[in-house]
Amino acid sequence: MTPPPTAAPAPPAPVAPGPAHDPGAGRRTHPATGGALVLVGMLLVALNLRAAVTSLGALLDEIRDGLGLSGTTAGLVTTLPTIAFAGLGALTPWLVRRVAPARVLVIAMLALAVGQVLRVTTDSTWVFLLTSALALAGIAVANILLPMLVKQHFPHRTGLVTGAYTMALTVGTTVAAASAVPIAHAFGSWRAGLGVWAGLAAVAVLPWVPLALRARAAARRATPTAAVVTPTRVRPARTRLGWAMAIYFGAQSLSGYAIMGWLAQLFRDAGYQPESAGLLLAGVTALGVPIALVMPTLAGRLATLRPLVLGLTAASTLAYLGLALAPQGAALLWVALLAVGQGAFPMILTTIGLRARTAEGTVALSAFAQSTGYVIAALGPLMVGILYEVTGGWTAPIGFLLAALAVQTAAGLAIARPRYVEDE
Which residues of the chain have pLDDT under 70? Predict the structure, then answer.
């Protein structure tokens, strides 16, 4: 006897392509209730992403004297950001698959605040390095998360939101570079000029606390079926696009961190007062504010990035040649050209989102490009410091930066054509 028919199980509800591939799917903040808070949180985080680095560069001479650092050790101090960003940034996708991004950012900003406080309370070189590494760990994680958050929460406004947070990053960089020396002089110690930025990191924690609590509540409400959904793994290390992105990111970061760490020293050696040298360093980032706002939208609209890649290379080449030949005669011109050349940073951040279809692909590409890129970038401040100490001048360090720029240009031309990491 044929058994009575049973009702067929209902087909699963359609799932939108984005969340199904998002790390931490189901924990997303709904735009109507949390989109504005996410944006505010992202902007506050972005303000912190370079302040701890450029304030150190502006005060490098005072820190060297205060801690008794050699030129090579000072090179290591300026290289530390790239080392931390490379090693700890690579762990971020693993963290995000297990912990909601909002909770990760709470911990990251707390680490940044605590590390900045602790490193200005010691006279030990090694303690200074370790506590700096703690602070930089928070930045490393946030570096990777911001492109993913743009893709998750603002998929149709990628250029606009990327431009906004890149501009906030540039503002934080500029303010720290310009005011670190005056703050240090006002309080009579380099420690004040370096440690004051811990307060900015503490403020950046605030928007993420309610978002983290919401994410935790959402995770508790998640159904067992939703919990077992496994996103498709994207492996940029196995793609030519991933490596080209990493090399471009690394080469442009190499020059960026060398500039942040040593440009003020170059201008001091050219005869500028410490305050003026710090202001010239700040000028690079200040002029970069409008570039950071415009570049993501421009990169998103162009059919190919080739004109941008070549234009940025030309500006950087002229700036380096000017700094080598006449650092004092036309300092403002070289600063302006450096600012244009450093537009490579907002361009590559935007390209990370443009070269991935999903949030999961974006975080994977972001982690690989940035962590691998920062390994390359670590050579910048260190090699500049070594070449500066060995030769006693700036010709050899600038020659090294020009060679890195040639590598950057080749990688940039390789990523200029639109394609997606998931397709490779």
Answer: 1-34, 219, 221-232
